[in-house]
Design a protein that fits this description.
The protein has 202 residues and is mainly α.
Length: 202
């Protein structure tokens, strides 16, 4: 609804798009990274059997949550702009990629192969939507924003690895510390500001 209103009123969507992208990216990246590093702890809390095998599948499957979450931003924007034909072609290509990857990967890697297939499919979808959004709305990627985003990703991965590797505790304590560290780094790298979040309400 927000994108539809802005487009119908011919207002600039770039600032709102940047804020929405940043918020969804942080959510998707945090969920994917924490799930990858702490897949055993999460599966161990949910199930009693086959923890090792299920945690391996889970940590790869959850990587796809990042591109999947970003489609809610770019897919919604393109839908609001009426680019349904292009979105249908992307969906058709995604179906072909998913079927092909499943046929190639599942016989060799079983459930892990299916997880990789999901990653490839969702990445294809969001990359196509990003490229189309850049072309349709004549967007330009800010170098400063790109540097801060890359810095955030690297620092989060370093923090997650360090806490996981050197924490004197086990279980949920390092997991919660990792989440807190990643959230703190959002403000260290100045990815979001409170006034930008408030702008999404209107």
């Amino acid at each position: 609804p927000l994108f539809s209103r802005l487009i119908s009123q011919q207002e600039n969507i770039k600032k709102i798009l940047k804020t929405a992208f940043t918020l969804i990216f942080i959510y998707g990246f945090l969920l994917a990274a924490v799930s990858y590093y702490y897949s055993f702890e999460i599966m161990n809390a949910l199930y009693n059997k086959h923890i090792d095998s299920s945690s391996q599948v889970y940590k790869y499957l959850m990587i796809s949550i990042l591109p999947l979450s970003l489609t809610y931003v770019f897919g919604s924007l393109l839908t609001a702009n009426g680019n349904l034909k292009q979105l249908n072609f992307i969906a058709l290509g995604a179906v072909c990629i998913n079927i092909t990857c499943n046929l190639l990967l599942i016989p060799h890697w079983q459930a892990v192969g299916s997880a990789f297939s999901s990653i490839l499919t969702q990445t294809f979808i969001v990359m196509c939507e990003i490229i189309m959004t850049i072309k349709v709305f004549d967007l330009h990627i800010s170098l400063n924003t790109a540097i801060r985003m890359i810095g955030y990703i690297i620092s989060c991965l370093v923090a997650l690895f360090s806490i996981r590797r050197f924490s004197p505790w086990n279980g949920w304590i390092p997991l919660c510390c990792s989440i807190a560290a990643c959230l703190l780094l959002v403000f260290v790298w100045r990815l979001i500001r409170w006034r930008d979040i408030r702008a999404l309400r209107f």
